[in-house]
Amino acid sequence: MKTDTPVTIRRGDYAPPAYLVDEVALEFRLDPAATLVRARLALRRNPAAAPDAPLRLDGEGLQLVEARLDGAVLPPDRCRIGEDGALTLLDPPAAGVLETLVRIAPESNTALSGLYTSGGNYYTQCEAEGFRRITFFPDRPDVMSRYEVTITADRTLCPVLLSNGNPAGSGLGDGNTHWARWVDPHPKPSYLFALVAGDLVNVADRFTTRSGREVALNIWVRRGDEDRCGHAMDSLKRSMAWDEQVFGLEYDLDVFNIAAVSDFNMGAMENKGLNVFNTKYVLASPESATDGDWQGIETVVAHEYFHNWTGNRVTCRDWFQLSLKEGLTVFRDQEFSADMGSRAVKRIRDVRGLRAAQFPEDAGPMAHPVRPDSYIEIDNFYTPTVYQKGAEVVRLIHTRIGPAAFRRGMDLYIARNDNQAVTIEDFVAAMQEASGIDLSAFMGWYDQAGTPELAAEDRYDPEARRYTLTLRQSTPPTPGQPAKRPLPIPVAMGLLGPDGAALPTRLAGENAAQSGTRTLLLEAAEQSFTFEDVPAPPVPSLLRSFSAPVRLQGVPREQLRFLAVHDSDPFVRWESGQQYAASVMLEMVAAAQRGEAPGFDPALAEAVANTLAAAEADPAFAAEALSLPGEGFLADQMAVADPVAIHRVRQGLRAEIGRRCGPALRAAYGSLAETGPYRIDGRSIGRRALRNACLGYLVAAGDAALAKAQFDAATNMTDSLAALSLLADAATPAREEALAAFHARWRGDALVLDKWFSIQAMADRPDAIEAMRQLYAHPDFDLRNPNRARALIGAFAAGNPAHFHAESGEGYRFLADAVIALDPINGSIAARLIGPLGQWRRQAPSRGALMRRELQRVLDTPNLSKGTFEKASKALL
Ligand code: B3K
Ligand code: ZN
Q1: Which residues form the Peptidase M1 alanyl aminopeptidase C-terminal domain (predicted)?
Q2: What mean pLDDT is predicted for residues 207-217?
Q3: Position 113 in a domain
Q4: Could you tell me which of 191, 33, 200 has the C-alpha nearest to residue 124?
Q5: Spatial separation of the C-alpha atoms in residues 214 and 228, rounded to whole Å
């Protein structure tokens, strides 16, 4: 954990592993303070490596008890443990069996990487580099081995003993112990190893694969949580069926286990045959989970399941290739969710997420390509760029070659690379071969950071009935990449006539008639497309379904208004409404900054009225259309952000719309009230979202009592929380009453208590910082629990810009204090939370200086973890 000389790892320095490990036998004797791990590794020199490369096994914090080579104890002069914790064998043989016995202390592992305890049970997290905290091993993804794991533990404390693969025996041991053995027939990298043991209960089900394999499905939870696993199990079965239908991919073991744990660094982990999940993505009941939680569970269960092929069977050669598995698997889970519900609404949500997290990252100090060139701490690169932009790049390829060729490409990719650790080139090569389309230029999307900007210019010649569309792209510089080249950008588009109807889109030189959506491929910095036989001056509809992760700029307001009403593509309809509102709001912010009254554009109220009038057809879409662009989205479009002004303008606008559209909003609110039992189908979710959007405007316009009434009457968490979050902003006794009632009711439910913390962290109140300090000192706050730390600190820094960026700098100080306190406990979470301080360049100089001061204070902290060091130092560059 020393940061004196943090080493930068470079993609160009890749060298094959010196040794391969064909077989691994692990024996665990579990004890919270002193677990013994015996590892037998069948090693052999890698023919692809330099013949004199040393045999070096990664290790971190391991206490070596004994080492043997081919049965004989290794004398101290044959092996050495370096300062970094790694074990080097001097004078190593070409092949042999290395046996090590180490001691570790899971109960003191607060980093939650490696083997740790949570509530008395044992769990592991090995990706990316946690396996080296369990045993000595070449802990890199291109060393793939077959594992046999034997676990021995106290049978009263640990009745359940799980690992990867299929069960292969169990029995009683000495004293009060028992043991279980697991064999995983599929070779895998060490990051996919998992062990779970403890006092757990299972919810069981079955799945028969289409070739007839019977798979036992289990979700393992703590006693009392069994009745909240139904949705996760259902999501799992639907994922398994979908992957068979859409990609022809079947599950490949006899059991599929999911274990849920409340202390977990991220959402979930795809360990082979034994997924480990944050409880947040498993447990749900109507009373305790919001609609967003239900959707999150479906997505994450699917994502981890899909990794079984894209990630586990075909894995990454090195961590620079992370998006090979993550981008592709996010693309797959997005497609799954689109098939399960509304494709258009799913796309809107995904784009919203991309813009909220990835676009700012791409414009900030941590900007990196989807395939990074270097890192200090790989944990810092599990980013929106690697995941979400990576998924967009897979989608670009999908759009470019079409679904049928994409499916053939997937078949080829898997057949050719099964049980291997490969690179992004291998993926693109399979897609290229299967489609016969040259995709080499698409590699630029993996290697170039930054968000391309796209602009259009057009000309209509009424005599010739010819329409010319000129598209231009450019990408602003990012750290380390001053000059950018043009990328291939598929632009899905259509042309609309004056009445909103689709016009023909036949390009000059084409014979066949074309209409509806077609995709232009912009390959150069500038390119013109000429359409023939266009009967009237058209309005272009560009980037349908958001066909590329770019910023489309400069669409005139009248066109936005027209497209928001008339376009056939729901994404463009939504997008045009958002862009229109954003441009109006940015003007209002500028006015506010000049000290002028911001004014009001009645078109915004009209749009709300129109949306409400047509809402019945698709309430979920209407809810999306009704939401004003977020504060982060607006800040992202300003040269110098002004979070406080943005917040005021947005709130003011919400109030004004609430007043002007009061009757329509109230009528919709009333008619959308739920009558029957709680249901989580798309339509019911959409109706609740729309109703709560209406509530938001009405409360903004002054009707806090309506929120209190909804809060008191709510029978599901979505409605309860929507009301509570509005009340949290209101300086009324109802706020304190509701917050206290919520706490009293849910104090025993950690996941709901997280929401209680988050809502307050995001509240707009004059004493926001003081409230944060009190919550931080609250007896229910626990910095060591990642969910709780994120719920309070993360929600404040990322979700409450107006107060995080308070003029006084106290918001920044609060965040830095928390990061400094958390870093020695869990460096990975600390490094994640520090992110918002890195956006100082986008703020006014006075704020920027305060932010830099806090970054420097973090950086000056002794013994900083290398992850936090990397984030803070790169932010200051
Ligand atoms: N692969 C894991 C993430 C591991 C994060 C390590 N810091 C979950 C996922 O993407 O599915
Ligand atoms: Zn993943």
Answers
A1: 558-876
A2: 98
A3: yes
A4: 191
A5: 24
Whether the pLDDT of residue 514 is over 90: the answer is no
Confidence (pLDDT) at 1? 45
Which ligand is closest to the CA of 310, given by its number?
A: 2
Q: Which residues contact 111 (CB under 8 A, 6 or more apart)?
A: 825, 826, 827, 828
Residues 327 and 467 in one domain: no
pLDDT, tens digit (0-9, with 9 covering 90-100), for 666-683: 999 999 998 889 999 999
| Averaged pLDDT for residues 596-618 | 96
Token pair listed for 91:
């004078």
β-partners of residue 552 are 454
Distance, CA of 434 to CA of 408 (rounded, Å): 6
| d(C-alpha 459, C-alpha 379), whole Å | 49
Nearest CA to ligand 1 atom 4: 127
Instruction: Specify if 322 maps to a domain.
Output: yes
The whole-model pTM stands at: 0.98
Sign of CA dihedral 146, 152, 153, 156: positive
Last residue of a domain, one of 409, 426, 447: 447
Please give the residue range of the domain that contains residue 487. Answer: 453-509+517-548
Ligand 1 nearest atom to the CA of residue 270, by list position: 11
User: Is the CB of residue 325 below 6 angstroms from any atom belonging to ligand 1?
Assistant: no
Strands 420-422 and 374-375: unpaired
Lateral strand order in the sheet of 145-154: 72-73, 63-69, 95-104, 35-45, 19-29, 145-154, 177-188, 166-172
Cβ(269)–Cβ(305) under 8 Å?
Answer: no
Residue minimizing CA distance to atom 1 of ligand 1: 269
Q: Indicate the top mutation candidate among 123, 258, 270 to test ligand 1's pocket, ranked by most ligand atoms within 8 A of CB.
A: 270
* Ligand 1 contact via 131 beta carbon (within 6 Å): no
As a whole number, the mean pLDDT across the chain is 97
Please report the atom of ligand 1 found closest to the CA of residue 265. Answer: 7
Q: Is the dihedral of CA 285, 288, 290, 295 positive or negative?
A: negative
Dmax over CA atoms of the chain, in Å, equals 95
**Same domain, yes or no, for 104 and 63?**
yes
Residue 3 — very low, low, confident or very high, per pLDDT cuts 50/70/90?
very low
Domain CATH for 771:
1.25.50.10
Q: Do 63 and 181 sit in the same domain of this protein?
A: yes
Alpha carbon of 761 to those of 754, 781, 831, 838: distances in Å? 10, 12, 19, 20
Q: Is the dihedral of CA 323, 273, 298, 260 positive or negative?
A: negative
Q: What domain count does the chain have? A: 4
Q: Are residues 458 and 442 in the same domain?
A: no
Token pair for 627: 């939401």
Cα separation, 470 vs 230, whole angstroms: 52
Q: Helix, strand, or coil here: 462?
A: coil
Q: Is residue 863 part of a domain?
A: yes
Q: Is the pLDDT of residue 293 over 50?
A: yes
- DSSP conformation letters of 102-159: EEE-GGG-TT-SEEEEETTEEEEE-TTTTGGGTS-B--STT--EEEEEEEEEETTT--
- Whether 580 and 561 have beta carbons less than 8 Å apart is answered as yes
Which ligand gives the minimal distance to the CA of 189? 1
> Per the domain annotation, does 834 fall within a domain?
yes
Q: What's the whole-number mean pLDDT along residues 230-250?
A: 98
Are 355 and 326 found together in one domain? yes
pLDDT in tens, 64-113: 999 999 999 999 899 999 999 999 999 999 999 999 999 999 999 999 99
pLDDT for position 351: 98
What pLDDT shows up at residue 2? 43
51 and 14 both lie in a single domain: yes
User: Which among 447, 468, 496 is the end of a domain?
Assistant: 447
Assign residue 473 the CATH number of its domain. 2.60.40.1840
CATH code of the domain in which 39 resides: 2.60.40.1730
Per-residue confidence (pLDDT) for residue 788, from 0 to 100:
99
User: Are residues 333 and 469 both part of a single domain?
Assistant: no
